Amino acid sequence: MTTGRRSLILAGGGMKVAFQAGVLQVWLDEAGLTFDHVDGASGGTFNLAMYCQGMTGTEIADAWRRTNPVSGAGVDLASLTHRDALLTLDRYRSVTFPEWGLDWSKITATSREATFNVCDFGKYALEVVEPARMSEDLLVACVSLPMWFPPVRIDGQTYVDAVYLSDGNLEEAIRRGADEIWVIWTVSERGEWNPGFTNIYFQIIEIAANGHFHRIVQRIQQNNTAIAAGRPGEFGRRIELKILRAEVPVNYLLDIGKDRLHEAVNRGVQAAREWCSAAGIPLRPKAPRPEREQPSSLSFSEVMKGAIGLGETDFEDGYRKGRDEHTPLLTQLTISIDDIDEFVTLPEHEATVKGYVECAALSGRLPVESGTFNLLVDEGKPENKQMRYRLYLRNAAGEHYTLVGTKMVTDDPGADLWSDTTTLYTRVLDGRVRPADDDRATAVASGIISVHLLDFLHQLTTFRADGPPAARPATLARFGELFLGKLWDVYARHVLPWGPL
């Protein structure tokens, strides 16, 4: 018979725990979940400290939304001289912790049952610390990754990040009587080996963290199988595991883009809402986003040309048929980003589209009544991205069509960046079709259109930023950083798996 005791594991993951904070916004606030015990390891201890002092999930998520990843870590020449570490966490103490509002009097006096994990290097042992014993020094020790940050010495003991021993202490949750263990796991499980010192260092961490995590998950599964068969099992009771896994496109440590970190939080929100929906967990209504007085906006124009084949569903076949039968298609579009803050930090990266489509086979010029554009988005595999277009059209006869197009941005063999980012695989559907109904809709035509070089050069001259004059250069820069950073994820991930911007 279970007691219904529930533990939450805030696993490590370096800066990926910004995603974890987004999950907490949903699980704690929107789903109203409560936990009898919460455990944190490595970067997860940052979120645990905020939780212990009574912050809501949204407050924890907002703290990360305000975080600039370059404001915390600094370089200590003395440490480099002594070959102790490459960086220090001094600015976390002086800048980031105060910005988060960490209050040690509240943390140490919390009524919430919690455990922090740190490695006692002198004993080569995992040390579990309750909030009453915690301090700023111990929190820094919990994330002091060897080589990157110097160890923390407290009362003659040397402490470092516990990641090589455990990046999520499920055993402590079991020891404390958990019947349900909820885990937010963001350590990469892609199994993609990349060369270079930095990549190899973090891949070693992935070996240690994933290896230990997979072993304890397997032990719990074997325990549950034994219990179901009437045997005692290793832990003496059934333990239900609920794991939210995610491949978060943020480097564990080497990040300089505030927008990317903010997007990671919003990815966590999105993933947690989808996870709760799949699990049948009801959510409270979302709070409306606060409106800003004058958000910065951006627009640019794009021309694409090619051919479509009537009655075709295959893009290549449609293009060849359209070329042979002279059924060209041209798009003249203006893409408008109404709020650059939302565009660069929400995972959908969605803008609105106006303009027209020119195609004699579809009765001439068809105005875009409404449309959307999504820039370099992904679905669970951030190394493969798409640019998506959905244009709702109507011709002079009043007939409705939906143009659905996708640019497939994937690092295939050879130099394919130009073709990937300029080639739109296009399908025209009959009627006004919602995304969920694409597969059931009737395809009027399919083909391929693309941005030609001269049109691309002209496109570069059409970028216009609007909003407060002083913010316009930053608006253009933020769009450029987003675009280049996403391309890095695809084409330069062997140098560093995720773009630093």
Structure description:
- The radius of gyration is 26 Å and the shape is elongated.
- The model has no long low-confidence stretch (mean pLDDT 95).
- Strands 1, 2, 3, 4, 5, 6, 7 and 8 form an eight-stranded mixed beta sheet that branches. Strands 9-10-11-12-13-14-15-16 form an eight-stranded antiparallel beta barrel.
- The protein is of the alpha+beta class.
- It is 34% helix and 26% strand.
- The relative contact order is 0.11.
**How many strands?**
17
- Please bin the fraction of helical residues: 25-40%
Residues in β-strands, percent: 25-35%
Class from secondary-structure proportions:
alpha+beta
**Taking Cα atoms only, what radius of gyration do you get, to the nearest Å?**
26 Å
The general outline is elongated
Low-confidence stretches: none
Oligomer: single chain
Total helical segments: 15
Mean pLDDT: 95
Sheet bearing the most strands, described? 8 strands, mixed
CA distance, first residue to last residue: 50 Å
Strand and helix map with partners:
Elements: E1 6-10, H1 17-30, E2 37-41, H2 44-52, H3 57-65, H4 77-81, H5 90-100, H6 104-108, E3 114-120, E4 125-129, H7 136-142, E5 152-154, E6 157-160, H8 170-175, E7 180-185, H9 197-228, E8 240-245, H10 258-279, E9 297-310, H11 315-325, E10 328-337, H12 340-345, E11 350-359, E12 364-377, E13 385-394, E14 400-409, H13 417-422, E15 423-430, E16 443-450, H14 453-460, E17 464-466, H15 472-491
Parallel strand pairs: 1-2, 1-7, 2-3, 7-8
Antiparallel strand pairs: 3-4, 3-6, 5-6, 9-10, 9-16, 9-17, 10-11, 11-12, 12-13, 13-14, 14-15, 15-16
Helix pairs in contact: 1-3, 1-10, 3-10
